[in-house]
Specification:
The complex is a heterodimer.
Chain A (H helix, E strand, L loop, with lengths): L6 H4 L3 H22 L1 H10 L20 H6 L13 E6 L9 E5 H17 L7 E4 L8 H12 L2 E4 L5 H10 L4 E4 L1 H13 L11 E5 L5 H11 L2 E8 L4 E7 L6 E3 L4 E6 L12 E8 L10 E10 L11 E2 L4 E2 L4 E3 L2 E3 L1 H10 L6 E8 L2 E9 L9 H19 L4 E5 L14 E3 L1 H4 L1
Parallel strand pairs in A: 3-4, 3-5, 5-6, 6-7, 17-20, 18-19
Antiparallel strand pairs in A: 1-2, 7-8, 8-9, 9-13, 10-11, 11-12, 12-13, 12-14, 15-16, 17-18
Helix pairs in contact in A: 2-3, 5-6, 7-8, 8-9, 10-11
Chain B lengths: L2 E9 L4 H11 L4 E8 L3 E8 L2 H10 L4 E11 L5 H11 L4 E8 L5 E7 L2 H10 L4 E2 L6
Antiparallel strand pairs in B: 1-3, 1-4, 2-3, 4-6, 4-7, 5-6
Classes of the chains: A alpha/beta, B alpha+beta.
The structure holds zinc ion (ZN).
Chain lengths: ~425, ~140
């Protein structure tokens, strides 16, 4: 069984990797400077020319790109090649502001699918496997990315897309799917549905899952692993750089290996833009070293995480990134306190609630209010108001302990909070309506 | 002797209670007694019906969460002081009453439902005081 999809890159010695990155960066900067006026203007404004970039060590001289730049340059301003060389677009869900449209040449698609193939191989996938892709297909990168990766590995690919959960489970059983790819919240939902149908993990053949496109916690991982009888692996990516597969988890499950032969990662101080040393917590920045259609240099992802070169037991030498600890877009400032939805999720799971929740923030008489709605499970229900009130109070206290803010907790009926088939909407900030 | 009561979680949103009772009616669930306890967020619909098992299944299929509790149905005379008499008997036996509600059976008798912390102790105390408690069949 192949352990790596492209061992020549996945297990490359560090100095060879630096040399490869340097060679690619020098070429990429030249090409972008020539083809992308928007970025050329940014470089000119900073007084940097392609000649200043002689190796990967010079990358800090380049200007950053942000989501705002993507908005300004929409739709063609950051295109890296002639449109006639492009074969595909993918787009973000547009949950925050204007949507992003990314362009791919055939070489870009191949590279992206190779990255996903590395992820599928890392969870034990081979041509003996049946890979069920239950990410959405279409503009969303989840379905197309993992679909391509699964093909390259030679798995029998079930392009299910998301939704119609009972049919998913029927295909899973009839065709003996062994690998599942979808969002973690959808994986949890499939697990719940399996149980409702009176089935157990023994009734399915799944052994591994590749879950990404939204934040999830270690507790959620354990829940999914138990309810589906699998090992659950994380995968990371963003449409701006390609899609899922920018980084992926190996059997060690202690962070995601970045495909750094294609995507160079830096951690910066989000306030000053200064590059921070390895092991520091900060904002993740990616440079696409060889993308042609949409070659973003030093793109600020808004994801807060940590990079590590610690030796991994899987044998890969690719640098690892931690699970993002929050997203500056998602961060809520409530009564002056920084709150990440993932913190609330951690409390819910610890207290035995479903990870489906809705956070509503509002401002009443100049005071921020925090309301958390969470689904009650049949086991938690009681016939007395007192018992349920005690439960609400206990959960509110646990959230208060975690955040330092008093929330109002609402227990709601099962399955009344919408499940995500793409990205979950877990936060409604009504304060924006008043501004 | 005790009676099986089914409690159903109802969100405190417009039309939720109506929808739940309509749902039960559509599935030919014959309700003998019904009470609702509510807070700002949610309500608990409590019902007594002739086939608790079938009702539970129907509710689960409808996506409701419910729970079955054994409660006491004490026959109550139509005269002043009879409710107080029952409560006194229970208090003397150190039984804690969580909630109570009344209804009329087809035989014309009025009953009080008592949800208590200890059914055995409460039953014995009521029997000792000559107060009759009903079982499921008596009510239909
Ligand atoms: Zn590893």
């Amino acid at each position: 069984m192949a352990k790596y999809y492209q061992p020549e890159f996945e297990c490359m010695a560090l100095e060879d990797m630096r040399a490869l990155q340097s060679e690619k960066l020098v070429k990429q900067v030249k090409r972008v400077y020539e083809n992308v006026k928007y970025y050329r203007d940014l470089m000119d404004a900073k007084g940097v020319t392609p000649d200043d970039i002689k190796s990967i060590d010079d990358i800090h001289k380049l200007p950053f790109l942000t989501k705002a730049d993507l908005r300004d340059a929409y739709p063609y301003g950051l295109l890296g090649t002639d449109l006639k060389n492009c074969v595909r677009i993918q787009s973000t869900s547009g949950t925050t502001g204007r949507r992003v449209v990314a362009f791919y040449t055939q070489a870009d698609v191949d590279m992206w699918e190779d990255c996903c193939a590395r992820a599928v191989t890392a969870v034990g996938g081979t041509n003996e496997d049946v890979c069920q892709v239950a990410y959405g297909y279409g503009l969303f990168t989840g379905g197309p990315g993992l679909n391509g990766g699964s093909h390259k590995v030679g798995c029998l690919t079930l392009p299910m897309s998301s939704g119609n959960t009972e049919r998913q489970i029927q295909f899973m059983r009839d065709l003996h799917a062994t690998i599942l790819c979808c969002t973690p919240s959808y994986a949890a939902y499939i697990g719940e549905t399996l149980k409702e149908m009176g089935l157990t993990p023994d009734d399915i053949d799944l052994k591994a899952g590749i879950f990404g496109a939204e934040p999830w916690t270690e507790e959620m991982r354990r829940d999914i692993e138990k309810s589906l009888g699998i090992k659950a692996y994380d995968i990371y990516g963003l449409t701006e750089t390609s899609g899922p597969g920018v980084s992926f988890e190996c059997e060690e499950q202690t962070g995601m290996h970045i495909n750094e032969d294609h995507f160079y990662a830096e951690i910066i101080d989000p306030e000053t833009g200064e590059v921070l040393p390895e092991g520091s917590k900060g904002e993740l920045v990616f440079t696409s070293l060889d993308k042609e259609g949409f070659p973003l240099l030093r793109y600020r992802t808004r994801d807060i995480c940590v990079l590590s070169r610690k030796k991994c037991s899987c044998g890969r030498t690719l640098i690892k990134m931690s699970k993002p600890m929050g997203r500056s877009d998602d961060m809520l400032i409530i009564r002056g306190v920084n709150v990440f939805p993932s913190q609330i999720e951690t409390v819910l799971i610890k207290e035995g609630y479903s990870p489906n929740y809705l956070i509503e923030v509002d401002r009443v008489k100049n005071n921020d209010t925090l309301d958390v709605s969470v689904e009650l499970s049949p086991e938690q229900f009681s016939d007395t108001v007192k018992d349920l009130a005690i439960k609400e109070k206990a959960l509110a206290d646990a959230i208060k302990t975690m955040l330092g803010i008093n929330p109002k907790v609402h227990l709601v009926a099962p399955k009344t909070i919408t499940r995500s088939e793409g990205k979950a909407v877990r936060v409604i900030d009504k304060r924006k309506l008043h501004d | 002797m005790s009676v099986k009561q089914i409690s159903v979680f109802i969100e405190n949103k417009k039309g939720e209670l109506a929808a739940a009772t309509r749902y039960l009616a559509n599935h030919n669930i014959n309700l003998r007694a019904l009470s609702i306890a509510d807070t700002q967020d949610f309500g608990i619909l409590r019902i007594i019906c002739d086939d608790p098992k079938a009702t539970e299944t129907v509710l689960r299929e409808g996506g409701y969460i419910s729970t079955v509790t054994d409660v006491l149905a004490a026959e109550i005379e139509d005269k002043p002081g009879s409710m107080a008499a029952i409560l006194e008997v229970l208090a003397e036996a150190h039984v804690i009453v969580e909630y109570t509600y009344a209804f009329l059976a087809p035989d014309g008798h009025a009953y009080m439902i008592f949800r208590v912390d200890d059914n055995a102790v409460a039953s014995a105390a009521l029997a000792g005081a000559g107060i009759k408690t009903a079982n499921q069949e008596d009510l239909f």
